Amino acid sequence: MIKNYIKTALRNLWKGRVFNLMNILGLSVAIATCTLLFLAISFEFSFDNFHEKLPNIYQLYTTANRSSKIEKSTSMPIPLAPALKADYQDIENISRMANGGALVKYGEKQISLNIHYVDEGFLKIFTFPIISGNTNRPLQHLNDIVITEYAAKALFAKGVDPVGKTVELKLNNQAQSFIITGLAKDFPNNSSIAFDILMRFEMNPNYQQALNQWDNQNNLVYIQLNDKVDVQGFEKRLQTFVNKHFTEAINNIKRDGARPDVNGNVYTLNVTPFAHNHFNTDINGLEGAVVSQSSVISLLVIGIFILVIACINFINLSVARSFTRAREIGVRKTLGASKLQLLSQFWVETIMVCLVALVVGLVLASMVLSGFKANLKINISMGMLLHPTLLLTGIGLFVLITIIAGFYPALLMLRYKTVMVLKGSVNTTKPGKVRNTLLVVQFAISTLLIVCTLITWQQTNYMQNKPLGYNKSEVISIPTGNGVDGNQALRLFRNVVNGDPTIVSVTGAYDNLGNGKDGSQRTSINGFNYNGHELRTAIQKVDYDYLKTLDIKLIDGRDFSREYATDSNAVLVNEAMAKQISTKNALGADLPMDDKYKSRVIGIFKNYNFRSLHDDIMPLTLVMDKNYPINYIFVKVKPGNLIQGFDHVSQKWKATFPSVDYKGSWLNENTEKQYQKEKRLSTIFISSAIIAILISCIGLVAISIMIMVQRTKEIGIRKVLGSSVSSIVMLLSGDFIKLVALAAVISFPIGWWVMSDWLKGYAYRITIEWWVFALAGVAAIVIAFITISFQAIKAAIANPVKSLRSE
């Protein structure tokens, strides 16, 4: 029986090969798109799942209910972790963590590697297997370190066991020897925590000076709770600890008009599940590549949209072909075929088409996989499809698609009355309503994607072109790296290029602007009491000529000057900070930013966007504090030939620091990198909109062919009675254009609601204009009209004699 079904199916599929090729094309493109999207979604949701104790791992963060806003921060004081572990038995393991870097040397080989300063409990909390060395306590002594397989390959020759070897690390400009006591397996790509070397937390350069400082918050803290601990109850019990150790912070917040939470607390210590870190955008300072869950869900929605459009397309194509098979069904029913046999026959045909589409779709997906990975910056492979969850989901979707796409057209044809079918008369009223409904759904989704594409493109373009308040097109940012002292490097490089006609000015800073090639981006926040209230400001350590190099406008006072020895204790503030200090004039104010001395405000500069446009401009203070290192050197080159200027700076750097990698980049490149998420989302929307419209148009072609066949005699009669080709084309296209216009109108409020909510995530954003919807609607209508017009013109110019011959 099955063999007979397959033979019959092959004959029927070949007979209707044009419609089937359209079906396969639409389905295969949809399958390829959905495969890539679902692989990306699966990868994002798999982050940190490899940790064996994941359900019990939490990260600490503080919540300060200030009068202006609620601040959540993961930065903790150094003495917190040991004190917390001593006070609460609910905690099985605890570990602090701070990031750093160092130049690591073994023999003649040296390389810059990333360091995580951690406590012994770190490897008990997280699953980073030690494959060689001391597996029980690899960080037992202060000079013990653990390195990854990647670091071992970079430092040692192939086949050399690194365990027991002594390496030299340059920390705080001092060379120190460490023993490798453990070799850790390389962390997977879906790990939020990434490192090359693990080192005892006590070796952190800031450890000794901040050992007893509860107001100096500079590290992360992870805990592993015992099984069956009531997390909410544990959080409530932490308030006793907070009241004991953070009294000054609580008093300051209350003094400045705090807004207590539902429990009456203004400052709390909270825990967040580490399993949720990858999608947690509400808390500042979480480790790893934090992404918006809404962005990932948008990928899922787009994938579902495309799958729905493909299924609708399949149904419409099958219904379109059902009219050519009506007599076949009538004859089969007359010869005694049961409904189950006919359903089975159609389902076998559907499965065969879907199988071919599946194979073609997977081949297409594998062909574009590398480009897709590069665009989304994720590490996925086709082999992930064999994961049990993805495999079962794929099989379920395949069966569901064959049922939805195969059974409805079959049931539709089974309803035809045998006598009417054999006479050549088929009632199509109900199928026409269903077909039109499906068509409206298709184009509503397509138009919605066009709207999203236009608004995403607008916002991305706005952020890239908005003036930020500093020169980003002529300034090069160079990370000093771990191998040199930044302050010394700045002085040396400034002397080397002094008098160079290509270079306008040179300066340095602690923090970068945007994302440079070193991938680092941070903002240092400082709080202090002034005139009876707390001031909070971002701190940027700079060197001379910072404002000059970046073309930042000084609106009052003066810049840092070498002529004034006291400028080492002076500060410059932006307009937002000046407003915080005084409503009249902040110039000359003495700010107690440090317990040892006061810092005088000698200048006020214009606000500039030193962070991304996701955030408002916050108060900023420029300092020349020696406690902050210079991590970045900024070089302003003369306009005219920027490419030549960049090459010239590169050559000068390499000649001055031959052992340090040159990772210079233009500041406009750095700022653009801040909006990679928006660019990727825009690319996905554009690609999805094109694919959705392509698949919808394939279905529209098939439906238009069916309609033209049904109305052949009507068209012939109209031509005989004198109708022009243009009037017939407009008549045949009119019904479809109305449906597409209706679909556009339905999509407009949905698109406005979705994108308005998305834009709320930006402090600086565009206003959604009416023309976006008009353009999207017109685009959908024009595309639909062009698609239909080919068949309409073909039908309109046909010889009416052939159409009316049977009459």
TrEMBL record:
PANTHER family with a match to the protein in the record: ABC-TYPE MACROLIDE FAMILY EXPORT SYSTEM PERMEASE COMPONENT 2, MEMBRANE COMPONENT OF TRANSPORTER-RELATED
Location(s) in or outside the cell: Cell membrane
Organism phylogeny: Bacteria, Pseudomonadati, Bacteroidota, Sphingobacteriia, Sphingobacteriales
TM segment ranges: 21-43, 296-317, 346-369, 389-416, 437-457, 684-707, 728-750, 770-793
Superkingdom of this protein's organism: Bacteria
Record key words, sorted: Cell membrane, Membrane, Transmembrane, Transmembrane helix
Major localisation: membrane
Pfam families: FtsX, MacB_PCD
All residue ranges annotated as the ABC3 transporter permease C-terminal domain in the record: 301-415, 688-800
Boundaries of every MacB-like periplasmic core domain copy: 22-240, 501-642
UniProt-listed InterPro entries: ABC3_permease_C, MacB_PCD, Macrolide_Exporter_MacB
Membrane topology, record value: Multi-pass membrane protein
Protein name: ABC transporter permease
